[in-house]
Amino acid sequence: MKSSLLSYWIAYRFWKSKKSYSLINILTYVTFFGIMIAVAALIIVICVFNGFEDLNELDLNYIKQINGIASIEPTLEATALARYDDEQLVVKVKGINPNGYNSKNIAPYLLYGEPQVILYDSIPAAILGSGVAHNLNVNIKDYSKYLYIYSIKESSSQVSATTLFTESACMISGIFAINQDYDNIYIYAPIDEVQYLLGIANKFSNIEIGISDKSNINKVKKELANLLPEGFIVKDRHEQDELLFKILRNERLIVFILLAFIVLIASLNIISSLGLLLLDKQKRVQTLYALGMNISQLKKLFLREGAMIVLGGGAIGLLLGSIIAFLQLQFGIVPMHGGDMVGHIAYPIAFKVRDYFFIILLLLSIAILLPRIPIKRIDKDFVAIRNV
What we know:
Helix content: 40-55%
Shape: elongated
Distance between the termini: 38 Å
Number of strands: 9
């Protein structure tokens, strides 16, 4: 224990002591502050993304004020597994409002049944595309059979049908035919059921807007883009792209990875910084070796110095970023365009323990691995005292 504390004290003295070349000091502090700023930026950006994830409700009355909008309805889409009797099929489930625009709009395209996703006694129901109904061998007149819809749970420690999937049972109320591509994959269901399947209550993926005059579509799009907060994308039916939506849903993870690489790049200076420090302190290292420290202990000495630089800069950066994010949360320093619609005048902030865990894990990995590269040169030849 005492030797370990002594090792840390010597490492600290090596870091703070005067160097033979000012370049070593400069490089060491560039590394320290580079890590500090990168980590601070990482925690701030991630907290902002967390804040946007928690924005679940829009004030749709703001959108309704735009001239030319005839209807508006939040919807939620999910990829799921549908099972009817012994048949199974991967489908797209579209959650809609039972009394909304989609329920009324689907009516002219019905081949059988009724345009309802809620039946008597509040039983959830599904409206199937004709291709889906055909592939599942559905008998719409058989009221004894349910359509079962399954979605994979986000986290499950066990692998079984009950723990791996969320299940929803629906009656079949109708079959529609719009076009072959759509009919072969889509199912309409109550939005509450789709939210239950995904485990995201009170959230939606799209806001579908109907306009009274198609000639004004570009004008409506422009007004919506100006009114909605940053991060919302306005697209007409021809511009919608499922792949792009999936990419946007994973944008937070992509940004985290990119900023983590910036932290890593800033930390790479520790290799050159420790390498130069080794050369600068070679005589002192030789003295310590002569006093009884072995090669392993000398390596640990510089490993701890590298760890102090990385973890010290990272800890201050984490604290600084958290303070800035907290000030934004409390005082709304940076305003957000269109924030009135979501009840946030400024960019939202949310702190989550998992983000701190991954950032600390990243810093620990860097502190353990990178300093090992320059200390490989500490061997018997390096510590040998030669007579000149």
